[in-house]
C-alpha cells in the first residue's frame, strides 16, 4: 500500500481529541506531510494546522484525504459520505484506518471510479502473502516488543529512526499498524492478515537489504497478552530480528482489557530471546523504552536508572529523553560491515 502525500487530515465532527488519535499520531511524526485539516461543525479536535477547503487543499498540493479518526467499532458515519465524495470529485485519493471499507459504500465507490482515484483501506490489504520461510536474509532488523499492548512500540521505533538517521545510519521505519502505515506511507496492518501468513507478510515488509541497512519494525501486542500473542509471535518470527527493544508502561498492574498480570521486563526479554532464536539464533536485547508520562521527571529518571542497572541495558523514555543511549548500544554491538 503506497499512499500519496501530502495529506489533508479529515477529523469530521469527532467529540474529543482521543477520537482523532490517528490524526495526532501522523501530525506528531510526519508534520511535513500534514498540509491542513478539514473539520465539520461541532468538531472538538484541532491539530493546530490550517483549516482548508477542498479547493485550498488542492491548491497547496494535497494528494490524499486521510480519515484520521479511530471510533468505537471503526464505523464510517453516514453524514461523512458526502464530504468524502466531494473530496474524490475534487481529485483527492482517500485513506482510512477504520474497519469499514470505503469501497463498500456505493456512493464512494462510484465517485472513486468516475474520477480515477484510489481508495486506501489501511486495515485491509490486497497483497497476497506467502507463508513465512524463516530463511536467513541480509540486512539488519530491530523489533519493538512490549510488556503489554499500547505501551509505545510505534513511538519507540519512530524515535529510533530519527535518532539513527541523525547519526548517519541507514534506517527505515516499517509499519505494521494502521497509524504507522499513514506515518510511513506504506506497510501492512498485521492484525488484519490471515494468521498463516503473518510471518510471511513481515518478511515482505522487511525484505533482504544491504548488510548495513536497518529495518525498524513496529511491534504489536505482547507475547504475554492472551488476546494478541499470536500476532506478536508472527511478527517476531517474520522480523528475524537481530535486535529488540522492550517497551513498558510502569503504572499498569494488569494487561489492557484482561485480568492477566503484567509480565516483568526480564520475562519479556527471556521469552523473546527463546522464541526469536527460531529464525535468528543471534537475537539480543539492546534497550528498554519506558513511557514515563505518568511520572514526574525525577521519578522517571530514577526508574530508568534502576532498570538500566538491573538489566544491563540502556533505559530511556524515547519521547521525553531521546534514544541516544540505545543508538550507542546498536553501534557498539553491530559494527558496520567491512568495505
TrEMBL record:
InterPro entries: DgcN-like (IPR011669), DgcN-like_C (IPR035086), DgcN-like_N (IPR035402), P-loop_NTPase (IPR027417). Residues 129-327 form the D-glutamate N-acetyltransferase-like C-terminal domain. Residues 45-124 form the D-glutamate N-acetyltransferase-like N-terminal domain. This is Uncharacterized conserved protein, NAD-dependent epimerase/dehydratase family. It comes from Methylobacterium gossipiicola. The lineage of its organism: Bacteria, Pseudomonadati, Pseudomonadota, Alphaproteobacteria, Hyphomicrobiales.
Amino acid at each position: 500500500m503506497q499512499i500519496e502525500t501530502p495529506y489533508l487530515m479529515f477529523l469530521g465532527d469527532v467529540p474529543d481529541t482521543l477520537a482523532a488519535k490517528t490524526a495526532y499520531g501522523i501530525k506528531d511524526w510526519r508534520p511535513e506531510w500534514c498540509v491542513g485539516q478539514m473539520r465539520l461543525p461541532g468538531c472538538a479536535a484541532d491539530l493546530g494546522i490550517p483549516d482548508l477547503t477542498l479547493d485550498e487543499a488542492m491548491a497547496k498540493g494535497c494528494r490524499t484525504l486521510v480519515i484520521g479518526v479511530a471510533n468505537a467499532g471503526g464505523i464510517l458515519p453516514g453524514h461523512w459520505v458526502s464530504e468524502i465524495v466531494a473530496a474524490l470529485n475534487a481529485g483527492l485519493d482517500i485513506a482510512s484506518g477504520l474497519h469499514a471499507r470505503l469501497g463498500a459504500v456505493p456512493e464512494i465507490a462510484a465517485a472513486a471510479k468516475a474520477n480515477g482515484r484510489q481508495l486506501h483501506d489501511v486495515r485491509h490489504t490486497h497483497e497476497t502473502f506467502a507463508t513465512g520461510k524463516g530463511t536467513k536474509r541480509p540486512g539488519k532488523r530491530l523489533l519493538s516488543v512490549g510488556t503489554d499492548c499500547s505501551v509505545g512500540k510505534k513511538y519507540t521505533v519512530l524515535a529510533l529512526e530519527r535518532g539513527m538517521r541523525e547519526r548517519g545510519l541507514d534506517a527505515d521505519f516499517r509499519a505494521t499498524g494502521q497509524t504507522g502505515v499513514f506515518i510511513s506511507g506504506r506497510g501492512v496492518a498485521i492484525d488484519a492478515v490471515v494468521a498463516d501468513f503473518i510471518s510471511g507478510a513481515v518478511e515482505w515488509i522487511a525484505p533482504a537489504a544491504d548488510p548495513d541497512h536497518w529495518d525498524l519494525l513496529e511491534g504489536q501486542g505482547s507475547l504475554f497478552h492472551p488476546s494478541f500473542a499470536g500476532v506478536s509471535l508472527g511478527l517476531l518470527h517474520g522480523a528475524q530480528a537481530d535486535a529488540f527493544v522492550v517497551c513498558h508502561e510502569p503504572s499498569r498492574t494488569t494487561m489492557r482489557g484482561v485480568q492477566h498480570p503484567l509480565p516483568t521486563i526480564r520475562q519479556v526479554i527471556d521469552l523473546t530471546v527463546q522464541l526469536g532464536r527460531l529464525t535468528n539464533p543471534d537475537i539480543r536485547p539492546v534497550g528498554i523504552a519506558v513511557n514515563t508520562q505518568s511520572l514526574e521527571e525525577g521519578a522517571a529518571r530514577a526508574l530508568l536508572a534502576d532498570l538500566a542497572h538491573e538489566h544491563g541495558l540502556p533505559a530511556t523514555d524515547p519521547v521525553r529523553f531521546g534514544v541516544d543511549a540505545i543508538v550507542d548500544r546498536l553501534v557498539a554491538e553491530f559494527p558496520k560491515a567491512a568495505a
